[in-house]
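Regression test case RT-17, inverse folding.

Input:
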């Protein structure tokens, strides 16, 4: 549940709940913005789905208007959306959702600082950059331990560098400059961040322009493993290479490292893609701002902005392991730009004058995708809910799992109560009584808590409300 009472700024928007089918894709209007770059840029993640029971997605989207950032969501695959809710003044927001289902944002403030906030707790936004220098273009990813990893651009003595910092339990980690491998004139831009196997490596990618280098246009990639950053992997050329974007991933074993970038080394600007299913897939024409999303070992979604025909539009290439490549264009009848993609969902900005429109496409998951998404084999029932003194947490597990654990988290993601080594009677309900206390026996305040039942690689989550 999202709680934000301190901001009452009014945002007027026309909501249209209808679908147009273009090349087999369901296209829906989301909201209006008075900014032509509402979903820019492709380095940061603007859209994030929350997988609930039986793969019923709730999809969240962040975007910017002329002076503020907003978020909206849909619980029916884009058919209808909530009215935009203001978060803060600023620009270039990024969003991710942690394993507990909490929504985490990073953005650039009007004064040029990077802020982080969890939309599901009462804590105020945190100044991440905390610098007198100009900072911009953040991206973030949240790992399985609820640690937020944030990258951004910061101008140091007139030279843009890439910085990295973590937020964990409301505390800031050390700030690290992770660029700086070029000459004294090298500048770095458009950082993105994600997590890939093996070992849940934190990957960061960005572009570099080094005028003192024979190959001045570069894409840099590094990863963090065991608290040590790797040496950068560099793609370089004397022709432009820029605007990288990294796939949305949280370290799932079936997801391989994949990213896209603009590449003109063949003589024309292409949207080139690395890794993912189907391998790299260069495009033709004047292609910019590429984004990529992979789903398990089966499906890849590639989108980019195409400017070859005199007006910008969104092209896509979809790869399905059973049938190969499918190509298409979203013919929107007006300029379309700045796509962003996550899973089977994509968003972009379109229009040639204000108000600009934000649109959403549901490309759909292929038949057989259930084989790549682990459905929970655990059911939870809490009675009463809400409760004031105690609640009975009943769980039913379909398989013969051992080492069942019930964990209670507060709204900030802090673990407050744990029940270990609980019984599991296959196919039959088991239960544990929670008295609304923490592990020390201290009574917890009223509020929304998350009850997580885990057994081996299976986890189920349910909201529990403690009343006064």
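Golden output:
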């Amino acid at each position: 549940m999202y709680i934000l009472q301190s901001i009452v700024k009014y945002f007027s928007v026309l909501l249209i709940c209808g679908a147009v089918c273009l090349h087999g894709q369901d296209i829906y209007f989301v909201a209006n913005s008075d900014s032509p770059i509402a979903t820019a840029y492709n380095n940061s993640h603007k859209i994030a789905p929350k997988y609930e029971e039986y793969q019923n997605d709730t999809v969240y989207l962040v975007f910017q208007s002329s002076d503020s950032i907003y978020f909206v969501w849909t619980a029916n695959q884009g058919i209808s959306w909530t009215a935009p809710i203001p978060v803060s003044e600023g620009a270039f927001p990024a969003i991710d959702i942690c394993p507990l289902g909490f929504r985490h944002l990073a953005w650039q403030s009007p004064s040029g600082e990077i802020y982080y906030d969890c939309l599901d707790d009462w804590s105020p936004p945190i100044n991440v950059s905390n610098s007198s220098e100009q900072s911009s273009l953040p991206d973030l990813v949240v790992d399985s331990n609820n640690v937020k990893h944030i990258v951004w651009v910061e101008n140091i003595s007139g030279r843009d560098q890439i910085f990295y910092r973590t937020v964990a339990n409301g505390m800031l980690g050390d700030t690290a400059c992770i660029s700086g491998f070029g000459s004294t004139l090298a500048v770095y831009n458009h950082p993105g961040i994600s997590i890939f196997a093996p070992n849940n490596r934190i990957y960061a990618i960005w572009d570099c322009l080094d005028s003192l280098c024979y190959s001045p246009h570069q894409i840099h990639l590094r990863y963090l493993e065991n608290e040590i950053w790797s040496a950068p992997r560099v793609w370089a050329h004397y022709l432009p290479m820029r605007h990288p974007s990294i796939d949305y991933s949280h370290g799932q074993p079936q997801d391989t490292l994949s990213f896209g970038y603009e590449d003109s080394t063949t003589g024309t600007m292409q949207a080139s893609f690395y890794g993912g299913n189907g391998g790299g897939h260069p495009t033709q024409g004047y292609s910019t701002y590429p984004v990529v999303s992979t789903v398990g070992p089966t499906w890849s979604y590639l989108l980019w902005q195409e400017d070859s025909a005199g007006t910008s539009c969104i092209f896509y290439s979809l790869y399905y392991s059973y049938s190969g490549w499918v190509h298409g264009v979203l013919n929107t009848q007006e300029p379309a730009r700045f796509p962003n993609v996550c899973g089977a969902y994509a968003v972009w900005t379109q229009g040639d004058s204000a108000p600009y429109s934000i649109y959403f496409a549901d490309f759909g998951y292929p038949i057989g995708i259930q084989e790549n998404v682990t459905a929970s084999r655990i059911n939870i029932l809490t009675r009463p809910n809400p409760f004031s003194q105690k609640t009975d947490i009943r769980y039913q597990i379909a398989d013969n799992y051992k080492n069942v654990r019930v964990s209670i988290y507060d709204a900030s993601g802090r673990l407050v109560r744990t029940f270990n080594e609980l019984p599991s009677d296959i196919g039959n309900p088991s239960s544990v009584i929670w008295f609304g206390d923490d592990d020390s026996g201290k009574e917890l305040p009223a509020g929304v808590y998350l009850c997580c039942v885990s057994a081996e690689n299976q986890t189920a989550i349910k909201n529990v409300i403690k009343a006064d």
